Amino acid sequence: MRKFKIFADFKEEEAYLNEMAKNGHFLKKYTAFGFYHFTDATPKELHYHVDYRKFKTQADFEDYQALFEDAGWLHVYGTKWSLNQYFLPKNDNTDDDIFSTKDSAAWRYKHLYEMCYLSVALVVIYFSVLLIVYDFNLANMSFLTPGLWEMTGAKFWRAFFFELPFMLFRIIPAVLLLVMGFAYAVWGSKAKRSYAKMMEDEK
Question: At a CB cut-off of 8 Å and minimum separation 6, what does 192 contact?
Fold first, then answer.
């Protein structure tokens, strides 16, 4: 089973996974853009914990896994590139936490908002390039056939339907990226506020 969900709060994400486990759906993997993949089994009360971490090398990632395994945590899913890392306590102790301090728990929000803002920056660069390519007029991305709107009858419809797939190919990715850029800006802002609040509570 696959579910689509987006979280900017790791506690909410953990609560969601715990609730899914109670209903017999257990996390198998997480893929980009918010898709959770579950396997079905007998319902069970579990206590997922989520970290958000980037790694420079595969060796760093393997050391990270080994550290948590030695500390009593089962690494459920996560790769060097996935950022999201999912754990379950091996001893089912619900009082355990994967973070030894609130400061280390807060840093995952810092990593999240940095990645979100990086994504927003890439979207801005992409649209800046589009503006240059299309002479600072995104309307030029639409139908490019010269004189199309002056054509009539069958000639117009032939030209229109011939170019329509190419126009959609140009427009749809740009619209999707614009939506994603806005979403990343919202998620990044929420993550930054969570980070600031946790750091303030730590003082």
Answer: 109, 113
pLDDT of residue 64: 94
Give the whole-angstrom CA distance, residue 160 versus residue 13.
Answer: 46
Residue listed under structure tokens 């940095």? 114
Place of tokens 């930054």: 192
* Measured distance CA(18)–CA(101) in Å, rounded: 22
As a whole-number percent, the residues of the chain with pLDDT over 90 amount to: 50
Please tell me which of 32-36, 84-88, 137-141, 144-148 the model is most confident about, judged by mean pLDDT.
84-88
Read off the pLDDT band of 169 (50, 70, 90): confident
Long-range contacts of 71-77 (CB under 8 A, 24+ apart): 72/96, 73/49, 73/98, 76/27, 76/48, 77/27, 77/28, 77/29, 77/30
C-beta contacts of 178-183 below 8 A and 24+ residues apart:
178/123, 178/127, 180/119, 180/123, 181/119, 181/120, 181/123, 181/124, 183/6
End-to-end, the C-alpha distance of the chain in Å comes to 43
Mean pLDDT across the chain, nearest whole number? 88
In sequence order, the β-bridge partners of residue 30 are 36
